[in-house]
Amino acid sequence: xxxxxxxxxxxxxxxxxxxxxxxxxxxxxxxxxxxxxxxxxxxxxxxxxxxxxxxxxxxxxxxxxxxxxxxxxxxxxxxxxxxxxxxxxxxxxxxxxxxxxxxxxxxxxxxxxxxxxxxxxxxxxxxxxxxxxxxxxxxxxxxxxxxxxxxxxxxxxxxxxxxxxxxxxxxxxxxxxxxxxxxxxxxxxxxxxxxxxxxxxxxxxxxxxxxxxxxxxxxxxxxxxxxxxxxxxxxxxxxxxxxxxxxxxxxx
Amino acid sequence: xxxxxxxxxxxxxxxxxxxxxxxxxxxxxxxxxxxxxxxxxxxxxxxxxxxxxxxxxxxxxxxxxxxxxxxxxxxxxxxxxxxxxxxxxxxxxxxxxxxxxxxxxxxxxxxxxxxxxxxxxxxxxxxxxxxxxxxxxxxxxxxxxxxxxxxxxxxxxxxxxxxxxxxxxxxxxxxxxxxxxxxxxxxxxxxxxxxxxxxxxxxxxxxxxxxxxxxxxxxxxxxxxxxxxxxxxxxxxxxxxxxxxxxxxxxxxxxxxxxxxxxxxxxxxxxxxxxxxxxxxxxxxxxxxxxxxxxxxxxxxxxxxxxxxxxxxxxxxxxxxxxxxxxxxxxxxxxxxxxxxxxxxxxxxxxxxxxxxxxxxxxxxxxxxxxxxxxxxxxxxxxxxxxxxxx
Lengths: 252, 391
Fold this sequence. Notes:
The complex is a heterodimer.
Chain A: E1 3-8, H1 17-25, E2 43-47, E3 50-54, H2 63-67, E4 73-75, E5 81-83, H3 93-97, E6 104-105, E7 114-115, H4 121-125, H5 131-135, E8 141-145, H6 146-159, E9 179-182, H7 202-209, H8 212-243
Parallel strand pairs in A: 1-9
Antiparallel strand pairs in A: 1-8, 2-3, 4-5, 6-7
Chain B: H1 11-33, H2 35-38, H3 49-61, H4 64-74, H5 84-105, H6 114-117, H7 124-150, H8 154-162, H9 164-184, H10 202-228, H11 235-262, H12 274-294, H13 297-300, H14 303-333, H15 341-364, H16 373-379
Helix pairs in contact in B: 1-15, 3-5, 3-14, 3-15, 4-5, 4-9, 4-10, 5-7, 5-15, 7-8, 7-9, 9-10, 10-11, 10-14, 11-12, 12-14
């Protein structure tokens, strides 16, 4: 069982309470950012009058976790994808790899960290819900078990088929995410990437990485074999040359 | 002060001094003000010139090292022996500078050793980190006989020479993994990288094109060395390498074409876009024109023709790697990246350092002294049973 957040964009009024609550919970300065930054891990965007909040999707099989060479990012059993600063060496592969373009970097600092939403993992550990869902005055964002939220989302789609695009964004995208979205307009119009595959991205590199033992084993035998055969050929050529009394050797 | 001992001022030395001085200032900026002040990198475009050029291109251009080591020590084509040492040196310097570039690019460079103890085998970057570490060690060992000879350290010399074949095999395997892994890095961004460059075969393309450019680099570097150090050029050897390059390039071009056609990517060619222009440039300069050039025996066997073809292959290769790592990702990032002067200056300095250390190594070590093991083997048959010295 893992926790998730359901965002119903048809209910969001764009008040920004989740943004302030997020900043307060994470000890970040209240500022006028209009996009995600290292100081704003949750933002409300307006797309032709439709409000949609953007933050880490907390994928079920997260790309960022799979690409991090030092295991600084981790998917917890409870749902959140969390970041262990003391391991991070700052390669920023997570930023390149994230299909939703979420992780941010503290570019201004000499010793920067990666910043992204943690689904308030520290609050969850204390039995509290994330600051954003707690702050939402209209329950546009709700917190709960992923299974239950999926059922709730499907209910809403069934009860009001005309009011929604019949799709739960995050149900299957990149193998499923712990943040789910409902919308009345196509998700592409809200700035969501529409071309993300439905299978987990870590598989794309794992297919290749899992071949490494084969490459090493077959490669060693092959190279060793070629070395032995070409050496032997030169020795035979030399010996034959010597028998005929005219020593000559070819280079193989 | 003894003025006669100071190096003479020449045009290229002045250029190098200016580049290195600017680079030093840029390095100061980078390490005191941070990446934000010293680069044009942003949250939307977190990898730039240092990864795209210094790392991706640097590693590829060093591919001559494992290719030539395999030709001489695994395939026993010992007539190529005379050009092994400078090629291994080029590869070693290339890899060492890649490691330095990584120190510039990492947000926390003092944690560069973390992948040694904090493992994540599911990460391509983890594979890359280990390949850089291990292959840099192998290259250092492959070059070490030159140093040992210089100081007449017989024992270590004997040990390293006895290890030649295992070292070369390890080097070829590590290079195979590393060259391909730089392509695998981008397998994880199917929705971000332009279809001209995204392919499930990206690791294979990177490996094959690295062999091609490795051979081109040997030709390029031999020409420059001949000019700079007033040496005789090994034309017959280079002509043969040129033929090898034709085979590799043709194979690469065919694979690329087949892959693009099977994914229906060729239809993008009808859309005039920046990507189309860059793809066309990369393909024409790096594959089509050099292949057309080298098809003529007169071009293939002339020093200038071969050199020109090698320069084209290298240019096309650089374009390809920059397209994969920078321009191919621009459209999906929704932003435009152009390197800051500090980034360019650091990159130029690293290239400059490469030239400088190569020249210093040539002056103080026997880089061009060919200890032709093949010739010895011909004189003494029993020598064929002992491992051939590395360089």
